[in-house]
Amino acid sequence: MYICFVLKKNNCMHFETKGIVYRLSAKQKLPMSLDEAWAFLSSPKNLKTITPDYMGFEILSKEETEMYPGQIIQYIVTPVLGIKTHWVTEITHVKDRFYFVDEQRFGPYVLWHHKHFVREIPGGVEMEDIIDYKIPLGFIGRLFHPLLVKPKLKEIFSYRKQKLEQLFGVYEA
Length: 173
Prior knowledge:
This protein is 23% helix and 42% strand. By secondary structure, the chain is an alpha+beta fold.
């Protein structure tokens, strides 16, 4: 199933399902340089800035100066009902100023594979997130996807879009 939520001209978020793995794709254009976008997006310390405050996002790992493959990032997040959730992700791939991939090693999902792309366009950059994820509990988990998981992810990425526009401006080109 392919559903596109148009967030603003040239910005889109959609969910699709193939088998037992879900995919969330989101694109956003911002009026900033590629260097500026990469510096912000590839720094784990900025995750807190673009995550809703009510989620209590807290990085437990020592912050590194530069992202690298094999980097482990531990954090706590409180996504639902005040339940603190420990996450451990690994940065598995990095191509400077083009993309990086984080994969959950421990956390609430059975699978979480998140690709972050950034590319230069006239007047700014286009960012694209592609997340393949599988929720636990089999059939029961799939029942909760449209009621809890999907709306929560949509809310988080909508917040992220708005926050990035507050910080860097609205793309008009």
